[in-house]
TrEMBL record, chain A:
SUPFAM superfamilies: P-loop containing nucleoside triphosphate hydrolases. This is ABC transporter ATP-binding protein. InterPro entries: AAA+_ATPase, ABC_transporter-like_ATP-bd, ABC_transporter-like_CS, ABC_transporter_ATP-binding, P-loop_NTPase. GO terms for molecular function: ATP binding. Residues 15-244 form the ABC transporter domain. PROSITE patterns: ABC_TRANSPORTER_1, ABC_TRANSPORTER_2. Keywords: ATP-binding, Nucleotide-binding, Transport. It comes from the Bacteria.
Automatic annotation (TrEMBL), chain B:
Pfam families: ABC2_membrane. Residues 19-248 form the ABC transmembrane type-2 domain. It is a multi-pass membrane protein. Coiled coil: none annotated. This is Transport permease protein. InterPro entries: ABC-2_transport_permease, ABC2_TM, ABC2_TM_bact-type, ABC_2_transport. It comes from Sphingomonas natans. The chain crosses the membrane at residues 20-43, 55-83, 103-125, 137-157, 169-188, 200-219, 225-245.
Length: 324, 253
């Protein structure tokens, strides 16, 4: 387990979801008694395949979807009973590029601020627009902007009322690589300013790059919540593929307690360990043992499993049911 | 009550009007002026007085209502339909904004536009015919109640519609015909039976007559029924809108 990040010291959950369920009219159960706590100041990535319930979960917290059951507490405020206070704390950047296309950038951002009950403040609107490199476009009509710019306008609208929690639903959808990097940098900056960020994504790379913790949702259920580093350490695997000079009839008895597999053609040995084990019984030891056993090899390829591999494993149900 | 949000919605909606000034203000004013030219000046000169009021002046309240009803519905329905259509409704639904703020913002802005239009038409009428308003207090009262009612109706229509076509259907296929047949250009006493009795089932008749009574102290129907009907209509609309927000019908999933 890695060292605890600094925010753990404050131990406060800014968002607590418990028993949250949503069944749509047609009978489709989009959320099945979801429990989830989000810590103050963290970047939390919610991963899941399409239709897993990510957007429904966000919608339920933000007031777009009426939950069938469960409670949502936003920094101590019940999102159903004290919905005004709860919603005022939250900013939402939707997945779709839904914009007032005929409006001007600065006008629409100022409107968002007003809608959330904050007094007019051109200085804050300017600061938000500048932080998103939109200041030069403040008088442009939204319809004239590129897709990436429109995405930034949506982020600016969500930040205009200075929320404590920002939901980003698939922030990189349809965004090119360069802009994605820029967006990640911007999200990092927001976190530095104290904003708690919850993003949904199916780009594993995005979660791997930015998140402090990761939750995996599948078929309306949270199947895992874990610190990213811990997740990679415990569920990630390291693998070494050894190309042998001479085929081996079988694994020598001296290596029997090592996690090795011999290929059908007897030409390669595959060595698989978890990322945690890799520290204790790493590649160097394997090489030494092979030499000690007099086994020559031509090639040695290594790889560590990415979050993507872990995610695919989880979603395929091989490790379901560990709970939040 | 989130007063800042009301102000934001109201000003945002009005800003849309100024941006589309030609369509929002000039077009209806031009259309109504043409009615005055044709019915008031060209044909009206050959018409008798109606209830002691010159024909050109007689049609003013009806013409104002013709514009107010269709514009109120169109503006209010478009105001709420547009964010539904573009998807920006997510922001309204996720904001600390309730039924009251939403209604006052959207319906207030639509009603403001309609009242501005009504006043412009009234001023334009002055160019064609002389008139005198007998009960100005009631005229303002009827104007406000009718405008707000039809803006609320437009709001409901904007929630109900799932395409631009449906948005047009009610104003064009229901309200405009009922207004034309509701005594806008004539007194229903001019109609032969059974049309006169049938016309009494047209609710617009009561609106036109209530408003005309405020202008000239003449009416084809009991104006208490007119006033009662408008208030009842308003209450029903508010009930429907409260239900829409309570259940999230067409707004929340």
């Amino acid at each position: 387990m890695s060292a605890a990040p600094p925010y753990v010291a404050r131990v406060t959950n800014i968002l607590s979801i418990s028993g949250l369920s949503k069944t749509y009219e047609g009978g489709h159960q989009a959320l099945k008694s979801v429990d989830l706590d989000i810590r103050r100041g963290e970047i939390f990535a919610l991963l899941g395949p399409n239709g897993a319930g990510k957007t429904t979960l966000i919608g339920a917290v933000c007031g777009l979807v009426r939950p069938t059951a469960g409670t949502i507490m936003v920094d101590g405020e019940d999102a159903r009973r004290n919905w005004r206070k709860a919603r005022a704390r939250i900013g939402l950047v939707p997945q779709e590029l839904s914009t007032d296309m005929f409006e001007h950038v600065a006008h629409t951002v100022a409107f968002s601020r007003g809608l959330f009950g904050k007094r007019r403040d051109p200085a804050i609107v300017e600061r938000v627009l500048r932080s998103l490199s939109l200041w030069d476009k403040r008088d442009a009509k939204i319809m004239q902007l590129s897709g990436g710019m429109k995405r930034r306008v949506l982020i600016a609208k969500a930040l205009a009322h200075e929320p404590d929690i920002l939901f980003l639903d698939e922030p990189s959808a349809g965004v090119d690589v360069e802009l994605r990097r820029e967006m990640w940098a911007m999200i990092g900056k927001l976190r530095d300013d104290g904003v708690t960020i919850i993003l949904t994504t199916h780009y594993i790379e995005e979660a791997e790059e930015m998140a402090d913790r990761i939750g995996v949702i599948n078929k309306g259920e949270i199947i895992l919540v874990e610190e990213k580093k811990a997740l990679l350490a415990t569920l990630g695997k390291a693998e070494a593929v050894v190309g042998l000079t001479e085929p081996l009839a079988e694994i020598p008895p001296g290596l029997a307690d090592w996690p090795l597999a011999l290929s059908d053609d007897r030409q390669t040995l595959t060595y698989t360990i978890t990322a945690e084990e890799a520290e204790a019984r790493g590649l160097a030891q394997l090489v030494k043992r092979l030499e000690a056993e007099g086994i020559d090899f031509r090639t040695l390829d290594t790889r560590r499993s990415s979050l993507e591999d872990i995610f695919v494993d989880l979603v395929e149900g091989s490790r379901g049911g560990s709970g939040a | 009550m989130n007063l800042t949000a009301i102000r934001a919605i109201y000003l945002f909606e009005l800003a849309r009007t100024w941006r589309t000034l030609f369509q929002s203000i000039f077009t209806p004013v031009l259309t109504t002026s043409l009615y005055f030219v044709v019915f008031g000046s060209a044909i009206g000169g050959r018409m008798h007085e109606v209830g002691g009021v010159p024909y050109g002046a007689f049609i003013i309240p009806g013409l104002m209502l013709l514009t107010i009803l269709s514009e109120s519905i169109a503006n209010a329905s478009f105001g709420i339909y547009l964010p539904r259509f573009t998807g920006t409704i997510y922001e309204l639904l996720s904001a600390p904004v309730g039924v009251a703020e939403t209604l006052i913002g959207y319906v207030g802005a639509a009603a403001t536009k309609s009242i501005i239009l009504a006043l412009i038409i009234l001023a334009t009428a002055r160019c064609f015919v002389p008139y005198h308003i007998v009960h100005p207090f009631w005229a303002v009262g009827f104007l406000l109640l009718i405008t707000v009612s039809f803006c609320l109706l437009g709001f409901i229509l904007g929630c109900w519609a799932d395409g631009f076509e449906k948005l047009q259907v009610v104003p064009l296929m229901v309200v405009t015909p009922l207004t034309f047949l509701g005594g806008t250009f004539y007194s229903i006493d001019m109609l032969p039976e059974p049309w006169r009795t049938i016309t009494l089932f047209n609710p617009i008749v009561y609106l036109v007559n209530g408003f005309r009574w405020a202008f000239y102290d003449i009416a084809d129907v009991d104006i208490r029924i007119s006033a009662g009907l408008i208030v009842a209509f308003l209450a029903v609309l508010i009930g429907v809108i409260s239900w829409i927000f309570r259940t999230g019908w067409r707004l929340r999933s």
